[in-house]
């Protein structure tokens, strides 16, 4: 008898485990099957392991229309291919389109749900979002403009004295602005700065686990509860979590000490510390919240500016003369443009918008959204729990909105045309998840584009024979954010007078930045 009971019990345990693991998937499969005739159109087979999935998504939206259905593993996935579809769903129906898909490895196990960017639509996310909104809303961000202006003067000087290192200089600028407005300490060298290094490591830990298909737990969420002693992948990710905690709390402790000593300048960390008790947040929640801007704001700002340089090299003849004529008229030859000049620089503003449109860094439209209720759009069924991807590569290169889309043409933004929203492009996303750093990010892009155009001629580099070296406007990096691969170009001052102004304004900026530089040594 006993000899029968043991195999029967084992068999039953296997069946129950299988059902527990498979139940959510079987239930979802049934729901999709029952609505199969109403699902949006989509390809019969999937392409997996693509290094640049946005290229395939563009083909799909060109073939199937603005709303495409993909069955990616157990999760229904919807690709939106036009500004209007993204607006109609992510903005207007934001109440049910603002969650996130589950990121079990990156969001739950590595980050213990403390990274708001990956958090589902929830009370925690709302609290986190409110914090970022208060820290970076328009009025608050205007308070960061002096730092952006000073760092931009440093950037202009770096471009003057070492133009071939332009990419590193753009990264330093973006990192320094974000670290200064977050922790009140600046970045002098992006290669050796300790905060930059620590944050880059944390980003590395996150991206190494956020790889679709790499871990079975993403497909079978119940595996999350297997004790770490039986699951080396889980033990490892929990070890990585400890490193993140150590880093984020270390940075916040440093800010706390400087606040106590009265040396912490106004910054996001100071705001968080001042408001901590009224916000009812733990030290750890606070430390992770302060880490947000670095992850979201550095690559995006630097990558957008790198695309601008690329556009200058490829299309400069068609727009730089007009931009420089406007700058000469409005600003004159004796000083760099300032934030106050921007409203009068209509053409330069169009160059800024076209930069963000032409090569959107957030090629996939940022982190995917997820739906929290069933929905029907133009007769198509969009199931609850769908992952929604609105790739900006499809949306910004949609011929219907932007004819001849790979041409860099600022004039598009000077003509009347219909486009949902107020910006004329969608570079910062939509609705409740719209980029909270959009004022800071767009100000960084705008002031530097205005100043580069004012101070320099950006043209193709020349080879030994004096021939112009062409650039490839499609040579972009893989990854969540996509920016130009290294390319050569020539950045020279427009005249010796322009160069002198850059040197003079840099000297003044160095003095003013001193108080942020001193703090940089505190870690
Ligand atoms: C040119 C610079 C930038 C670009 C192009 C950009 C673009 C984007 C995009 C497309 C999204 C996704 C929005 C959506 O899901 O609908 C996003 C989200 C986000 N951005 Fe930015 N961004 C930039 C700069 C910044 C900066 C400087 C910060 C720092 C405060 C920041 C913080 C965030 C955060 C925290 C989110 C996630 C919001 C959420 O999940 O609720 N971004 N950004």
From TrEMBL:
Keywords: Heme, Iron, Metal-binding, Monooxygenase, Oxidoreductase
CDD domains documented for this protein: CYP64-like
PANTHER family tied to this protein: CYTOCHROME P450 MONOOXYGENASE ALNH-RELATED (PTHR46300:SF2), P450, PUTATIVE (EUROFUNG)-RELATED-RELATED (PTHR46300)
Cofactor: heme
Positions with a binding annotation for heme: 435
Family: Belongs to the cytochrome P450 family.
Classification via Gene3D superfamilies: Cytochrome P450 (1.10.630.10)
Molecular functions per Gene Ontology: heme binding; iron ion binding; monooxygenase activity; oxidoreductase activity, acting on paired donors, with incorporation or reduction of molecular oxygen
UniProt-recorded name of the protein: Cytochrome P450
